[in-house]
Amino acid sequence: MDELSAVRGTLEHGPALVVVAGEAGIGKTRFLREAVASAAGRGVLVATCPPLPEPFTLGAVVDGIRRLCPTLGPDVELTPLAGALRPLFPEWADRLPTPPEELDDPRETRYRILSALTELLARIGVDVLIVEDAHWADPATLEWLLTLTATGSPGLSIVVSYRPGEVPDGSLLPRLTSRVPPELTLLRLELEPLGLADTGDLVGSMFETSEVSAEFVAFLHRHTDGIPLAVEECVLLLRDREDIVHRDGAWVRRVLTELKVPATLRDSVVERVERLDGTARRVLEAASVLDAPCDETLLTGVAGLAPEAGRTGLAAALRSGLLREWTPGTYAYRHALDCLAVRETIPAPQRRHLHATAAARLRLLRPEPAARLFRHCHEAGDVEGWCRYGEASADIALESGDDRAAVVTLLSLLASEDLATADRSRLVRKMGGAAVFGARGVSDLARAVLEAVREVLSYDDLRRQERGEIKLLLGRLLRDIGQESAAFEEIEDGVGRLPDRPDLAAPAMSVLAMPLVPDWPAARHREWLARATELLPLVESSSDRLRVATNRATALLLLGEETGWQAADEIQRAAHDASTSERRLLARFLFNTGQIAILWGRYGEARSRLDSAAGLVEATGYRRILSTVRVPFAYLDWCTGDWAGLDATVAELAADRDTNTYGARLARQIHGVLALARGDRGAARRALREVVDELAEDGLCEPEAGLSVAALARSYTADGDWESALEVTGRVVELIERKDVWLWATDVLPAHLDALVGAGELVGAARLLRRYADGVDGRDAPAAAAALASGRAIVAEGHGELGRAAETFAAGAAAWAALPRPYDELLALERRGRCLLRLGTADQALAVLGTVQERLWSMGARTDADRVAQVLREHGVDVARAWRRGPRGYGARLSPRERQVVALVAQGMTNRAVAQALFVSPKTVATQLSAAMRKLGVSSRAAVVRAAVETGVLPVESDDSAPRG
């Protein structure tokens, strides 16, 4: 068949990614077996994912490796990283390296295990990895596949099969083919049901003949819709009934009208089982309860058969075709649906007895298979065993970084009415910690987790200290879902219950010091800041001390205190001997301070801190925050006017599940303001309004909230809708005034002042301007100084002082340009030009406006450029309508980002490698490289580098290649 040839050809010329889709029973497994049958001499690893409600972490992969490599030979050389595999392969303990140091974050533990698995595949000679039924795969397996396709193992081809209709919502599986690197050949196939001819071929192969009656084939096709599995099962049933006979040289159905083929596959399976003798049925029932490959002793022992009778029953079950030998000496159902069909026929009391017997047998194994015992004890009604093995299963999941599996397991345990308060307290703290670490991965379970935590808090016999710990945990969970106000209340209450635990109280106090809730005045945050600082000497753990110190410095900077920068520098200097976990904490801190530096307008410092954060992320393998780290780089690009490809980058970040909620919201803001500037007025307004309303309705308090508010207000004032502009800006200004965090008003101040002046509230505008000036006085905050100059010009214009306003707008434009923040610079220059027009100095005004219009158009701010062009045309200036193909950023000059891209290309890096270095998408890199080629008048990668050197854009030995935002 053509599909088979395509897969074989693709694998022969690997490495490749082959994705095979198809409904249940379509024949994906057989198709793949035939596809790789010709791969003689190549290592083929098959991992089949079982249909478990909560699949075992990496279970299918581990089982596949065990089948391929039962023992780890002395010739397999492994690095120390492979020590992370000991929990998965305890039988290889004498061959695996010593386990590496434990990590604080289970998600990072999972990343290390996935890296170790990748290494293991290469060392045991796996050339083709087949993952069957990936729709049932656990999250860790899917993350591993994504990692393999993104970074890969040299020469490894990956084959994945799945059922499209059974891919759960939120699954990572669709991502597998969304970002395939160029070095992997991608082949996608969807297997279709058999036609009449193919159905005849399948039936003929089962009877080892091509002589099958056309009537019989049509009968089968009509009743099975051409699903290969259904065809197979029906033929086997009919053969068992002796309803198929060889007549006149062909296999035919004896009486086509007398006996109906079962309407469903389940009917056929059940009837086949009922035709077997008692020992075979007992083996099949035991196998359906065990629901995993197992050896003869376990299988026949659960069936309650003596060795001889067990062997007879097993042989009959194998002959029936329902069971097959998976690996030498282990047996399980051929098809999962067969297994389910048989299990559902077992009466409940008998099924419970079989589960109890399975649990008793599995307890004899070393190590005990906790996940399997958890299921069997639960089905057997053994509450004590269910709880014990459930907690052990959750611990294993946490060690492997599978937070979701741990949370689901612990939630099921907490639903039991037989748990003591002390047990509930322990389990809920363990579950809450997993939910915090994997907040986005368990977001759909948030309500259940919160209910479980609150239920434990309602118990009167809960110990005071445990209540305090759980309160802190509840606060962290509420912060993760954006309920900052409720979170801070819970954390504050929890701190009061932990007088003897400075290790818990001090970090919590330092969180309360951050001005991130709308109703708390700055004084309340400063009080908690002082208390955290006072407790700091009592904190013994270096990690906890660093956490308090970093939170303290962040709080100072958010409150607008210059001393925060000194504290930040001291932390960075003292971190050279930090552990891996502490360096990751430092990475988050540098990322936060870099973003705050943007707020202050210290863009050079912001880029330096963000670059340092990115370097630590890479050096420590802290990949879980990679997407989130990219957001402030995009924010800085917005501010500095480096807009080429930025809309694609922020759209990707906003949709990325790995971007935290706060970062995704900021990415949405940037995307909205870009769209508004570029002319997509209707959609942009709706998107920005959605963010503004979300911030207001959820009571969120975010320093960057003014970005979308200001853009939306400017669009309202352009229509003369002062009321709407005041409504959206007023809420943010009121919050800033209430909290006394005036540095947060940089974006919103000019927009709010414009709305006040337009509405005739000049006194209110002057009062606000004074408050802002006092609030930012004495701070080295260039953005605040520029906003203040623009604000003064707006108020002067409102009072009719046009000369003074023109002068002050020019000063504001110069301040914005010094940052640099070209968009705000040009908006200020536009206002200066309009003032000059009203003063009657038309020539000077039109010269200013002409330059502004051209630069706005070059940036891609078409809405603003068109507005200025209209003024110019009204005064007789002929404005060209050139360049409708998109922004040119810096005109004919290369932007800073374009220079960085060219510099990295000069080192021989691919677009994907450049994207990883710069924390942007490959699409953005392609856009920026194309822009550089266009500006330099060349059409190839080699030519753009030569032209950049020849024109002096890059030095001959360029060192402008450090990864930047």
Tell me the CATH topology of the domain at 2-190: Rossmann fold
- What's the CATH class label of the domain at 2-190? Alpha Beta
Main sheet overview: 5 strands, parallel
Distance between the termini: 49 Å
Spatial order of the strands in the main sheet? 2-3-4-1-5
CATH superfamily of the domain at 2-190: P-loop containing nucleotide triphosphate hydrolases
Overall mean confidence score, pLDDT: 84
How many DSSP H or I helices?
44
Task: Give an overview in words.
This protein has 965 residues and is mainly alpha-helical. Among the domains are: 2-190, Rossmann fold (3-Layer(aba) Sandwich), CATH 3.40.50; 196-261; 264-346, Arc Repressor Mutant, subunit A; 780-888, Alpha Horseshoe (Serine Threonine Protein Phosphatase 5, Tetratricopeptide repeat), CATH 1.25.40; 896-950, Orthogonal Bundle (Arc Repressor Mutant, subunit A), CATH 1.10.10.10. It is 62% helix and 5% strand. It has 44 helices and 10 strands. Strands 2-3-4-1-5 form a 5-stranded parallel β-sheet, sandwiched between helices. Strands 8-10-9 form a 3-stranded antiparallel β-sheet. The two termini are 49 Å apart.
